[in-house]
Amino acid sequence: MLHFHLLPDTELIEDVCDNEKDGQHLVGRVASDESKIGIAVAAEILAQYTGSYELKMPPSEPSIFEVSLSGGHLILSGAKLTPISQTEFSSSFGTVKFRKDDQGTVTHLILGWSSGGEDELARTTTAPFGRGSETM
């Protein structure tokens, strides 16, 4: 029977800890980091996304998700959406992408859950006058 004593390679650890100039390259990133940055998107574009979206999950009743505009940000069922692009947003529960038809009308919302998987929600209504507009 053989017995081994394993010792960690501390030289690698020391090199990483002592090498301050490369520290920025050693930082891991997660999807939620994108939500801290965001880009500027015009209020007119954001307003196009407001309304109700329906998630059908048979045999249950459909779930309705509301998108509104408040304080210059889109809000999806209470969660702030941070723009990553003109049509894609980051939130505390995952990513949100808006899909348009050939005429440029928003028809669907694609919800990428942070826990994995994706759901497509069909737009059922646009926000009534005043509801999709900027509120404080």
Describe the structure concisely.
The chain has a domain at 35-126: Lipocalin. The chain contains two helices and eight strands; from the N terminus they run ααββββββββ. It has helices at residues 10-18, 43-48, and strands at residues 51-55, 63-70, 73-76, 79-83, 88-91, 94-100, 106-113, 118-126.
Layout of secondary structure:
Elements: H1 10-18, H2 43-48, E1 51-55, E2 63-70, E3 73-76, E4 79-83, E5 88-91, E6 94-100, E7 106-113, E8 118-126
Antiparallel strand pairs: 1-2, 1-8, 2-3, 3-4, 4-5, 5-6, 6-7, 7-8
Characterization of the model:
This protein has 136 residues and is mainly β. It has a domain at 35-126: Beta Barrel (Lipocalin), CATH 2.40.128. It is 11% helix and 37% strand. The protein has two helices and eight strands; from the N terminus they run ααββββββββ. An eight-stranded antiparallel barrel has the order 1-2-3-4-5-6-7-8.
The level-1 CATH class of one domain: Mainly Beta
Give me the side-by-side strand order of the main sheet: 1-2-3-4-5-6-7-8
What does the radius of gyration come to? 22 Å
Question: In one word, what is the shape?
Answer: elongated
* Strands, total number: 8
- Give me the secondary-structure category: mainly beta
- Kindly report how far apart the N and C termini lie: 74 Å
Low-confidence stretches: 129-136
Largest sheet: 8 strands, antiparallel, barrel
Helical percentage: 10-25%
State the CATH topology of one domain.
Lipocalin
Number of helices: 2
Which second-level CATH architecture of one domain applies?
Beta Barrel
* Strand residue content: 35-45%
> pLDDT average, as an integer?
79
H-E string: HHEEEEEEEE
